[in-house]
Write a structure and sequence with these properties.
Low-confidence stretches: 1-36
Largest sheet: 9 strands, mixed
Number of helices: 15
Distance between the termini: 35 Å
Mean pLDDT: 87
Radius of gyration: 26 Å
Length: about 525
C-alpha cells in the first residue's frame, strides 16, 4: 500500500535527495506511488470491553500492574519474543493478561504482530486489513503497511477488512500494549481463519520473516469455553468442575510447551475443545525456537472470578523467551561490480523499452527473462537512478523505502528518471548514447536507539513520525555542511514537521548505500 518515492537531485548539486517526486496524471501502472489517504480503524470496544475514557483505562491498567507486582521473569532471562494473552473484557481477563504484559515493561520493540481469532466471519487462511491506523481512547497506532503488503503477496493472506469490523481479539490488546511499550511501534494485525496442519505451517512460514529482534508477537486467545452457552458440557458443573476445566486447559498448554502442533490439533478435534486460541497458537507453534522457553505466568477462569461455573471461559497468560529472535535475516551477499554492471544494463534496457514502446508497456519480467538474477538483487531494497548528459543533470528518481526487489527498483526508477522527472523534458532516443547512468543502491535501514550512532557522510537517515516520513541520502549533510542537529531539523521540515519534530516521538533509521556510474551502453 505505502511506498514513498523521493526525487534524487544531482549528486553534486545542492540538496540532493531531498525533494518528493511528482508523478504524471496518468503514469503507467508500476509508477503508481501515491501515499494512501489516512484510514483509521476505530475500536468499538471502549465503554464495553474496557473503560471509555483514556484516564479511566490508564487507571485500570495501572491497578492491574500494581496487583501483578514485579515481573514474573528474572532480570537475567532471555529476551521476550512472544506473549499469549486472553482477550475477554478487562473486568474478566485484564488482570490475567497484565501478568504477561508486565514482562514487557522496559523492553523496546519496533513492531508488534498480533495474531487474533475471527469470531464473526468464517474464512480460510489469514485475514489482513487495509487501514493505515488502529485507534483506541489512548491514541492512534500506525500500521506497518509494508509488512502487511509483504504478507498479502502470498495467496494464503488476503485483505478482508470486514473480518475486523466488530472483532475484539486484536482491539482488546491495544490499550495494554500502549501502556506497556514506551518506544514508538507499529502494528501488524492478523486474524487466523480455518486451516489444516499444513496450512498452519505455511502461515507460520509466511509470518516468520517479520519476527526479527525488534518485533513482538502477541497471540490473542482464550482457552476452554465451558457451559451450555458455549454448547460444551463434557462434565457437570459440580464440585470438580474447576479441576476438570483446568485439566483440559493444561492438556492443550502442554502440547504448546512441547511444540506439538499435531498433538494440539488432535486433542482439540478429539475432545471437541472450543478454544479460540487454537488458530493463533497453531500458527505460532511452528515458530517456537528450539532453545526457547514457554512460561505460564498466570491462569484463571471467569468461573473462578464470578463464583459461578455454569458457564466459564479460561484465561492463560504466557511468555515465550529465547536468546535469539524467531527470524534472523541471512547475511546479504555484498554487492559486487558484476551486480552493478547488471543493474546498469537493466536500467539501459528499461529506458530503451520505454522510449520504443511507451512507459505503460514496459514489462519488468520481459526485461529480465534472459538474465540469471543473483539472489542479492532479488532482495527488497531502495534504489536511485540518476542520468547526466555532458556532466549536467538530465533526470533522477529514486525509491527510498521499497517493497520491491532491488533490480525492479532500478528498472522502474530508470524509466521515471528518463520520462517523468518534472524538471526536465523527457529523454529522446537520440540522447541515450550521450547519457551517463548512476545507480545508488540503499542498504536496509536499521532503527537506532541513540543519535550518536549516526555518522554524517556515511549514513543516510530516514525519519518517521506518524504518517510523516522523509529521507536524506548519505551525501546530503556533507554537501550542505550541516551539523547533526541541522540535518535532523531539515529532515523534519522535509517530512512536513516542525524543525524540532525529531526531538520527541520520532523514529530514526540509518542506512548506507553504494554508488556505480557508467556511460549508457546499447546492447
Amino acid at each position: 500500500m505505502w511506498k514513498q518515492v523521493i526525487l534524487l537531485a544531482a549528486l553534486l548539486q545542492p540538496l540532493s535527495g531531498l525533494t518528493d517526486t511528482a508523478t504524471p496524471a496518468n503514469p503507467p501502472n508500476f509508477l503508481q506511488k501515491a501515499i494512501p489517504a489516512k484510514r483509521v480503524h476505530q475500536s468499538e470496544l471502549a465503554g464495553r470491553w474496557y473503560p471509555k475514557e483514556a484516564n479511566e483505562i490508564t487507571a485500570m491498567i495501572d491497578r492491574f500492574f500494581v496487583v501483578t507486582g514485579p515481573s514474573a521473569l528474572p532480570k537475567e532471562s532471555a529476551p521476550v519474543r512472544a506473549i499469549l494473552v486472553p482477550h475477554a473484557g478487562y473486568t474478566f481477563s485484564g488482570q490475567t493478561a497484565a501478568f504477561a504484559y508486565k514482562t514487557l515493561q522496559g523492553r523496546t520493540f519496533k513492531r508488534v504482530v498480533v495474531l487474533g481469532t475471527a469470531h464473526r466471519l468464517s474464512f480460510g487462511g489469514l485475514a489482513l486489513t487495509d487501514v493505515t491506523h488502529f485507534a483506541t481512547p489512548l491514541g492512534e497506532i500506525p500500521l506497518d503497511t509494508a509488512a502487511i503488503d509483504q504478507l498479502s503477496a502470498n495467496t494464503l493472506a488476503n485483505y478482508i477488512p470486514r473480518a475486523f469490523k466488530g472483532e475484539h481479539s486484536v482491539d482488546v490488546q491495544l490499550p495494554l500494549l500502549q501502556k506497556s511499550l514506551s518506544s514508538p511501534w507499529s502494528l501488524v494485525p492478523v486474524l487466523v481463519g480455518q486451516m489444516d496442519m499444513e496450512g498452519f505451517k505455511k502461515a507460520a512460514d509466511l509470518i516468520r520473516p517479520l519476527l526479527d529482534h525488534q518485533t513482538l508477537l502477541v497471540i490473542s486467545g482464550d482457552f476452554i469455553h465451558y457451559g451450555p452457552n458455549y454448547q460444551f458440557v463434557p462434565f457437570p458443573p459440580d464440585a470438580k468442575v474447576a479441576a476438570n476445566i483446568r485439566q483440559l486447559d493444561m492438556e492443550s498448554w502442554e502440547r504448546v510447551q512441547q511444540r506439538d502442533l499435531e498433538g494440539l490439533i488432535t486433542i482439540t478435534e478429539k475432545k471437541r475443545l472450543n478454544s479460540c486460541a487454537f488458530g493463533p497458537l497453531s500458527t505460532f507453534i511452528p515458530l517456537l525456537p528450539k532453545d526457547g522457553r514457554a512460561i505460564l505466568v498466570r491462569y484463571d477462569t471467569s468461573g473462578a472470578l464470578s463464583g459461578n461455573y455454569t458457564n466459564s471461559v479460561s484465561y492463560l497468560a504466557s511468555v515465550f523467551t529465547s536468546p535469539d529472535p524467531v527470524y534472523v535475516k541471512p547475511k546479504r551477499e555484498d554487492m559486487t561490480q558484476d551486480h552493478f554492471q547488471l543493474l546498469h544494463k537493466l536500467a539501459g534496457r528499461a529506458m530503451v523499452a520505454a522510449l520504443q514502446e511507451g512507459a505503460d508497456k514496459v514489462n519488468v519480467d520481459a526485461l529480465v527473462k534472459d538474465v540469471s538474477m543473483p539472489l542479492t538483487l532479488k532482495e527488497l531494497g531502495g534504489a536511485f537512478v540518476l542520468l547526466k548528459k555532458e556532466g549536467e543533470l538530465r533526470g533522477s528518481m529514486g525509491t527510498g523505502v521499497a517493497k520491491t526487489p532491488i533490480y525492479q527498483s532500478v528498472i522502474e526508477n530508470a524509466v521515471r528518471a528518463a520520462l517523468f522527472d518534472s524538471r526536465f523534458q523527457p529523454v529522446e532516443k537520440d540522447e541515450l548514447d550521450k547519457l551517463e547512468i548512476t545507480i545508488q543502491v540503499l542498504d536496509p535501514p536499521r532503527l537506532i536507539v541513540s543519535l550518536e550512532e549516526i555518522e554524517l557522510g556515511r549514513h543516510g537517515i530516514l525519519l518517521s513520525k506518524g504518517e510523516n516520513q522523509a529521507l536524506f541520502l548519505p551525501e546530503v549533510a556533507v554537501e550542505q555542511k550541516w551539523t547533526l542537529e541541522e540535518t535532523l531539523s531539515q529532515l523534519a521540515k522535509r517530512a512536513g514537521l516542525p524543525e524540532d519534530g525529531w526531538l520527541q516521538g520520532a523514529s530514526v533509521q540509518i542506512f548506507t548505500s553504494r554508488i556505480y556510474s557508467a556511460p549508457f551502453k546499447s546492447e
